[in-house]
Amino acid sequence: MFIVVLTAILALIHLYLWKRLVKDTTRPGRTRRLLTVALLGCLALLMAALILPRVVGVRESAWAAWPGYLWFGLAAYLLLALLVLEPVRLALRVRTRRRRARPDTAEQAAASSEVNRRLFLARAGAAAAGAASVSLVGFGAATALGPPNVLTVPVRLRRLDPAFSGFRIAVVSDIHLGPLAGRAHTERIVRMINEAGPDLVAIVGDLVDGTVAELGPAADPLRDLSAPEGTFFVTGNHEYFVDDPFAWLRELERLGVQPLRNENTAITRGRASFHLAGVNDLAGESHSDAPDFDRALAGLDAARPTVLLAHQPIQVTEAAARGVDLQLSGHTHGGQMWPFHYAVSAVQPAIAGLSTVDDTQLYVSRGAGFWGPPVRIGAPPDITVLSLRTDR
User: Fold this and answer.
1) Span(s) in the chain for CATH 3.60.21.10
2) Residues of the chain with pLDDT under 50
3) pLDDT tens digits along 282-308
4) Given 32, 102, 230, 291, which residue has the most CB atoms within 10 angstroms?
């Protein structure tokens, strides 16, 4: 059903693009036919990029992924640019209709001239939209494919023992290994995390877009993550998009990454400690692996702070109701492509950075990778090092 709905939406978008970029800018003939075929080819590449990984596998579909997803990003910004130009087009159309309503020959000639003028303006508008879109997507691709920013964020926690003052948690999310991001992507992220020297690493979901058989080698560098207190992982929604998400949990354990599946553990320094908990993603319900906050937070000492790993920021509502001190999340990509962050903001309590929900602090990473178009505009990728501070 999802593919059917998505196909319908993409078809309507491309119909609009055809109307504005092809039909309005050309006269009937060979040029219009060639441009129509080219646009249909771009749509076909996009659909292949979306569907083929599930049919023939990640590696076998890489040939379609790069052009298909780049066109996805370009089509999105072409749509926005053309919509911005719609008021101008409508104003000129009203003006032309008024002139055609006048019966004299001079006005009829003027109307004919206006048609040619509209053709010129349609071409100028299409060129402007194309230039703006190509520039934005080029900049966004360079940002998405470049190294993530390493952010250092101080966070004060209630009841944190002074022994943990300065304790550093590296938070990384949404790595999205798949047809566009492979082993080199993981190696760079691991190197950057290790260079930051964290005490603990938290991977908060959406690590992969494929099976262990397809992407195991790409994830293998995770075994080189180095943190004295270990590396921990919670599932994101994309982990459940494969037939056997539990295979990834077993693979991560083999790589030295500890999944927290609705469970908690104590992080200790001498006699001091804080609780680290993790809940499954909401998408786990489809695999009988739903989030269970009661189980994840069972047996905790109220005198010690709790840090919760939960992929989606929206899960903070449950966390706040149970007195969690700090939730670490991802999922939003910071919106990934401006201005689409407005849509993300409508369904999530925060899209990036540190905020507070009731008495629970929420930190949302923009993620170190991307999904869909390899484009980030207004939302650069990041790896965050949280430096814990006592509130005393």
Assistant:
1) 149-390
2) none
3) 999 988 999 999 999 999 998 999 999
4) 291
